[in-house]
Amino acid sequence: MHIPDGLMDPLVAAAGWLLAIAVLAYATRRVNREMDDRRLPLMAVLAAGIFVAQMLNFPIGAGTTGHLVGAALAAILLGPWAGMAVMMVIFTIQCLLFVDGGITALGLNFFNMGVIGCLAGHFVHRAFPEKHGASGAFAAAWLAVFLGALATAFELSLSSLLSGGTFGIAPLIAMPLMSAYYAVIATGEAVITAGILAYLAQVAPDMLWRSRSGRDGPAPEREAPSDG
Hints:
Elements: H1 10-34, H2 40-54, E1 58-61, E2 64-66, H3 71-78, H4 80-98, H5 106-127, H6 133-163, H7 171-203, H8 205-213
Antiparallel strand pairs: 1-2
Helix pairs in contact: 1-4, 1-5, 2-3, 2-4, 3-4, 3-5, 3-6, 4-5, 5-6, 6-7, 7-8
């Protein structure tokens, strides 16, 4: 899903940068105000893990690549604003050191995967009751990836229309191609995300409790299930 340099119409790329700067400024303020220092190690571990997962790229045609994203997992465990900060660090390192995504398209890449992914992942997961956490994690991760892919396809299509085909990709190619590939990729990411959260629910339930409640301290003891 990383967009390279030279693929987007300059107006679309510039709009992406403006959106990214505005959202990142707000997210940074929220993180500085809300984040507990004890959660910084988790941010670092998540950043490293997601970075590695995203580096496993494969081409899907039309100038873009397919890969896992990880934004939903970051948002579920850290909240949407800290999740966005983690994703921006990842995208910047990938762009500058590994040429994975162009610097002119960094704003769009952050918006598509970081902003949309974190907001969708956080709010969809929170919409599910705790007893349906696995289903919520699956839905959140799937939508986070798929909506980001649709946004990318829209931007590619818009670039093509604005430039008369000089930039971007024709809508009849971009929309079905990105939708088809990322429906499958999103399913894989949803399974992985749900699996990771199910594992954490067993070994570190307090981590998930804090992420849902926004509070620190140990999770309250759960009542033993009744036998009826």
